[in-house]
Design brief:
It is a single chain. Helix content is 22%, strand content 28%. With 342 residues, the chain is α/β, with parallel strands linked by helices. It folds into 2 domains: 244 residues, QueA-like (3-Layer(aba) Sandwich), CATH 3.40.1780; 75 residues, QueA-like (Thrombin, subunit H), CATH 2.40.10.240. A hairpin with a 4-residue loop joins β8 and β9. The two termini are 25 Å apart. 42% of the residues are buried.
Length: 342
């Protein structure tokens, strides 16, 4: 397949710049993967589509305050986006500057904190914090790294709303946005309904926003993201399967986590724990081993996320769903509305 197969035209005004006042106030486009039907609902209707014994699997990653501002010791302005912590004082990061800093140079942050440039690893810079651990540094002066299509700076409200209510393991530079629709009330409703809950961790990297740069998808190499699927998650999926329940992934990152673990397990009928990096590229033609249904947002044209949902629901159904969402003025991307594929 070709990158251009996943192009669509989106009116800019449909890109949500801020979340709705209430998490659960978003709309929900329901896709019937068996019969091809489309249904315009509200997110609060989600419980009516689920049944006792189903299992919702969430990604519990928490977004780091990973964007830092400063200047090179030679004087030029610098923006640093921490991609991954590799130690208490070590990190891999994107560095934006008029001229890339060389190994051995320093980046001076706003309050005088110093970052040493150690070298490069592909497109990322190896940095060392000379004065304090990166977690302390980011908490004190970091900014939430809102996606590039959000045309504003982060503010105080984003500290809550660009995190899921169940976020617990810090390490992401982007939110698992399908989970942003769930509030405590919704989680309690689902529990009373008898819908199970499990949590994986995938620390979403900035690469999730990188465009596919090759025309032939066979030539695309996915960015690496760290994930963990625990023994508890595997057991919960086994219990759901035993009673005829569906495994419902909340977000594409959860899909990649579960399917990575399944691929690593090797066996057709057994899911084993997994911990490590994944470069799994899911596109049409992929055979899903674990996930039966998916809650997700609307994704960018020509993105690997759009390719994943097209693999899951079928490209024709996704094309129709996106046309319907644009026609009905759904809100798109991170702070936008949701769809569920059943």
């Amino acid at each position: 397949m070709w990158r251009s197969d996943f192009q669509y035209d989106l009116p800019p005004e449909l890109i949500a710049q801020r979340p709705l006042p209430e998490r659960g106030a978003s709309r929900l486009l329901a896709l019937d993967g068996t019969h091809g039907g489309l249904h315009d609902l509200l997110f609060t209707d989600l419980p009516s589509l689920l049944r006792p014994g189903d299992l919702l699997v969430f990604n519990n990653t928490r977004v780091m305050r990973a964007r830092l501002f400063g200047r090179k010791d030679s004087g030029g302005e610098v923006e640093v986006l921490i991609e991954r912590l590799t130690g208490p004082r070590q990190a891999l990061a994107q560095v934006r500057a008029s001229k890339a800093p060389k190994p051995g140079r320093l980046i001076l942050l706003a309050d005088g904190a110093r970052l040493a440039v150690l070298g490069r690893e592909d497109d990322l810079f190896q940095l060392e914090s000379l004065d304090e651990p990166f977690t302390d540094l980011m908490e004190r002066q970091g900014h939430l790294p809102l996606p590039p299509y959000i045309e504003r700076s982060d503010d105080a409200a984003d500290a809550e709303r660009y995190q899921t209510v169940y976020a617990s393991r810090e390490g992401a530079v982007a939110a698992p946005t399908a989970g942003l629709h769930f509030d405590r009330t919704m989680l309690e409703r689902l529990e009373r309904l008898g819908v199970g809950r499990a949590e994986v961790t995938l620390h979403v990297g900035a690469g999730t926003f990188q465009p596919v740069r090759v025309d032939d998808l066979d030539q695309h190499r996915m960015h690496a993201e760290w994930l963990e699927v625990s023994e508890d998650v595997c057991a919960a999926i086994g219990r759901a399967r035993a009673v005829g329940g569906r495994v419902i992934a909340v977000g594409t990152t959860t899909v990649r986590s579960l399917e990575t673990a399944a691929a690593a397990s090797g066996a057709e009928d057994e899911l084993k724990p997994f911990r490590g990096d994944s470069r799994l590229f899911i596109r049409p033609g992929y055979r899903f081993r674990v996930v039966d249904a998916l809650v997700t947002n609307f994704h960018l044209p020509e993105s690997t996320l759009l390719m994943l949902v097209s693999a899951f629901a079928g490209k024709d159904l996704i094309d129709r769903a996106y046309a319907e969402a644009i026609r009905e003025r759904y809100r798109f991307y991170s702070f936008g509305d949701a769809m569920v594929i059943l």
